[in-house]
Amino acid sequence: MTASEGTTSKRFPWRGRLLRKGPGPASTANVANIITVIRILMAPLFFVLLLSDGGQDTSVRIWAAVIFVVAIVTDSADGIIARRQDLVTDFGKLVDPIADKVLIGGALVALSILGELPWYVTVLIMLREIGITVFRFAVLSDRVIPASRGGKIKTVLQAVAITLALFPWWGFAGDVAHWTNGILMTAAVVATLLSGADYLYQAAKHNRTAA
Fold this sequence. Notes:
The structure is a single chain. The protein is mainly alpha-helical. It has 8 helices and no strands. It has helices at residues 3-11, 31-51, 58-84, 90-113, 119-138, 149-166, 170-173, 175-210. The two termini are 32 Å apart.
């Protein structure tokens, strides 16, 4: 790549490959990133549906839960497409975790508003999520920090715990549903705090190495 081509690709990050795998840079507007943005746009619809009728309308609540599940499941789809088609971009690395936080954060806040989840659980998780996101932006000029393995495990636990909390399955499972939800949500909180601490530890380790 010549100097002029390098300058052009930096000036116009939207140019490049959209789906196919091949030579040249991937466009910021590639298919994987578009899926990620769509996931973010699904969050407001999910939030409104869940809160409608105070979460008591079973059919509407199920639709809200389905939207949440679809949005979370497509997290794997955009990642698989990005890796298989060599469409990984700095934009995708940064926005993909943000999409998870918007969806999961909206779900936690909605469940707390409905009185189905203690506010301290929502606050603990959101403080970690917002804190790490701010940290990622703060070091963006130096490096892009992708999601770690611990962060991915945390996201899976959060997604499973929230999904079970969204679907009104306690109607036929009774107390078993509430106990299961409580155990999974506790595991999600623990994983969230541990992964946040690991991010900070790895950042401190990187700074010591770079110094």
